[in-house]
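Sanity check record (used in CI):
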Amino acid sequence: MTPQLRAAARPFSAAALTDLVPAGTRLLALGEPTHGAEEFLDLRNELFRHLVTAHGYRSIAVESDCLAALAVDAYVGGAAGELDTVVREGFGHGFGESAGNRELVRWMREFNAGVEEGERLRLYGADGPLEMTGAAAPGPALIRLHDFLAERLPAELLPEREELLRRCGPDDRWTEPAAALDPARSVGRTADADRLRLLADELGLLLAAHRPQFHADADALWRAELDARTATGLLRYHAATAGDGPDRINSLMRQRDLMIADNLEAILRREGRRGPTLVFAHNRHLQREASRIPLGDRQLLWWSAGSLLESRIGDGYTFLATTFGHRAPDDHPAPDTLEGLLATLPEPRTVLDPGLLAAALGETGVVRARVPADHTYFGLDPEALGWVDGVVFVRDIARQQGLFGGG
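Expected output for Erythromycin esterase-like protein:
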C-alpha cells in the first residue's frame, strides 16, 4: 500500500460515500460487479437509509421487473401481504431470494408507517419484464393500456379490443424458452407481432396526446404510461429475439438498456419534486461508457443505460461503482490489477476518490484489468476511472449461489 493509495481511501461509511456525490444529483446510481453477493445489497441498504434520513431521498429503483415491482411498492406503502411472498414474487431474476432485498422492503415499510403519505418511500423496478430465458408477453400491458383509454376516450379513437386479444393470443407463444437461442422459435416478427407494434404505437400516441386530460388521476396515469413503455419495449425486444443476423445479441442488449433508461427517466419525472432517486443495478448497466462483453471470438458493444441517461440529464447523473477483492473459496485478484492493489488496504470496505485513485495507479504502474475467474462478474477497468464519481471496494465476499453466482 502506497501513501498515494492511502490518501485516496477512506473507511466505508454512507456519509463518506455521499461526500463524493456532486450537488445537483438527481439520479444516484450505485453499481455492483456481480449479482447474488449479499455484501453489495447490505452496502446499498446502508446507503439508502442514510440518503433517506440525511439527504431527502424518497425513492429507490432496482434492477428488477418494473411490473412485478408494483406489488412490492404497494406493500411498502402499507398494503396487506406477507413479506417473504411479496419479495419472492415482486423481484425478478431470482433476486427475491436475497436476504438483502427482504431487509430493504421490511425497512421501507417500517419507515412508511411513521410518515405522511407525501413523504412515503417508493420502490420501483427499473428493468423490463425480462429473464435469462426470454421476455414476458406484451398482451397484459397492452390490454391494460387499451382499457385505461377506453374508459376515458371515445370508442372510435381506439382499435378494437378483440383484435388486440386475437393477435396477442396465449402468453406462452411469446414466452417460449427455446426462442432465446433459436430465432425461428420467436413470434416477434410474425404478422401478428408487426400489427401489434403498430397498435401499441397508436395507443401510446393517444395516451401522450391526451395526457392533460388524464393528469388529475396521477397514479392511474403513471400505471398507463408504464404499461405503454413496457408493451412497446417488449414488442421491440421480441422482434430483436426473432432476428437472425450477426447483431442479434447486441440488439437484445440495446433494447434492454433502453428500457431501463426510459423507466428511470420516467421515475425521475415522477419523483423530481420529492427528491433524488437511488438506482441499484449492475455496473455494466449504470456505467457512463459503452458496455463491452466478450462472447466467443466477438465483442458485444452497446450503449449502457447509464450512458443514455448521462446524455439526457447530464450533471444530474452520478455513478458510484463497486468492486471486490477475494471471493471464497479461491478467487483472488492478481497483485498487478486494480483489485489486487486495493486488497492491500486494511479496511474490509473502502470508499475511494477516483481521481486520487487514478493518480495512485500512475505511481504504482498498475494498469491491468482483472480477468474474471468465471462468467459471473466483471472487474473494474482502471482505464474507466475518469467516468466514475466514486468507488467502493469490498475486500472479501462469500461465494454466491444460484443463476448469477454460479453456485
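The chain has two domains: 3-57+263-397, 134-244. If this sentence no longer matches the regenerated C-alpha cells, the check is flagged for review.
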